[in-house]
Protein AF-9 homolog
Amino acid sequence: RVRVRGVSIYRPIIYGNTATALTQKERDVLPTPDHTHRWTVAVRSAASAPDSDQVGGADDLSYFIKRVTFKLHDTYPNPSRNVDKHPFEVSETGWGEFDIHIRITFVAESGEKAITMYHHLKLHPWSISLEPEPQAPSADVALKAGPVHSWQYDEIVFHDPYQNFLNILTSH
Ligand code: SLL
């Protein structure tokens, strides 16, 4: 296994969440009627053209990502969710915002250590104009406002990559 010294190669990603307020009808049929939102947390390519209705690209990142573990709040059953194939995302319902640990494990050929990122799940369209005290908008207001988005752009950089991993990266 040969490292290619002096080479740095990066892959642009976005990570974050989309959330939609549930209607009363939708809440009534849930096993958990206290849940107010449906949300999706994801790691996606930032390089490719987006699908019409989603944030980020539709590219399959599994040529260099082996697993994404989304560690949810302990109030969720099996809070550590492993996703081993595209799309790297988890969808749930819930009522509260919390920090999600996003651990990315790379394919074995990379010889790279896993990395961890943090994302604060955003459900509410908080606005600085909510005076005098910031508070979550009412269900009516949230429904009218439509989906909430909270995404971060980042670049995963590989320094001195192994030759065969570099080949994998550049042939995609
Ligand atoms: C808060 N610190 O108090 C946060 C915790 C937890 C959110 C939020 C679903 C839990 C379930 C859920 O939304 N948990 O019923 O499975 O706001």
